[in-house]
Amino acid sequence: MKALVIGGGIIGAAVAWRLACERVAVAVLERGRLGQEASWAAGGLIAPQGEADRPGPFFDLCMKAKQAFDALVERLVRESGVDPEYDKYGVLYVAFNEEEREELKARARWQREANAVVEELDAREALRLVPSLSRAVLHALHMPTNRRLDNRKLTQAYVNAAVRAGAEFREGACVDALVTSGGRASGVRLRDGSVAEADLVIIAAGAWSGEIRGLEGDSIRFFPVRGQILCFDARPGILAPSLFSTRGILVPRRDGRLLAGSVFEDAGYNKSVTLGGIRHVAQAACELMPALSQVAFREAWAGLRPATDDLMPVIGPSPTVSNVLYASGHFRSGIMLSALTGEVIADLAMGRKPVVDLGPFLPERYRSPVPRQRFKITEV
After folding, report:
1. At a CB cut-off of 8 Å and minimum separation 6, what does 143 contact?
2. pLDDT tens-place string over residues 349-376
3. Statement to judge: residues 303 and 155 lie in one domain
4. In 3D, which of 227, 133, 149, 179 has the Cα closest to residue 324?
């Protein structure tokens, strides 16, 4: 079997690694540079209890995704030679007023019902856990099993492991369209007019997945949602758990950097850093950790999250082209979902039943005659 993966971000690289381990001949076609879009711009959280806002299929998928990553990370480090800095310090989700306190209490209830580990803390207990936390915090949820890593190193780890397993990566290879006949794809046509042949095509092009011609009948709208992150130079160990609030996040790195984010903006394919985004992120970060106002600013960047109309990933076979699989639309959870997505695509490619129920995430959901809700993108 020869497979073409369109997209060289973290999802495409994870898929390539798992397929190459199955002895599939894999080529990854990346329109720009490997891992330089959403995968590069992320915060690096493996935090299903912080990412999912309600119980249901997406939360269940995120929990399974973390389990898949936990089971895989040592092998990935061994086969890639790259340590993605998978740290075990948990997440602290805080409330600053009574309304937010009630929201966190409700979150704790449904997460306990799903057998997730969550601890409710009062203000004194939260400050004992994080001494640099704002004294304005009223209540907090501690999620000790949620984790974080360096997303850029993780992407490189997937690429390295895939290459060592036999996968090929091509940068600057922009795919224009599928080449199809009789409801099957025989390959893809690149922007330069050349054709690459394949027995299987995987769509993992993130926010650009909808630009590949030949899949219009699937009726899936992929679109970018801009996020902005500020980075500060602090001393290593100044913050242990990652911090969440309803307005922002603060994620530490081993070398002392603190990443503050983020906004959700409908800005098209514009990756500019804006004054409004900087102000929003900085205010939310300082609200969480007031001492951050005295920490040296390092840099800022923006990235484009790959979204769909229901803000859920699209994973599984195309309903109109039989040998095309989707692995896209992961929105803000691509880092967390990378290991599981790679595993699921490999299962589908090899004719095995996936380890998760893909029903809510299948591409065919967009062909339903029932109109689907389009989420309005606003700031966090």
Report:
1. 47, 49, 50, 90, 91, 92, 93, 116, 117, 118, 119
2. 999 999 999 999 999 999 876 545 555 5
3. no
4. 179
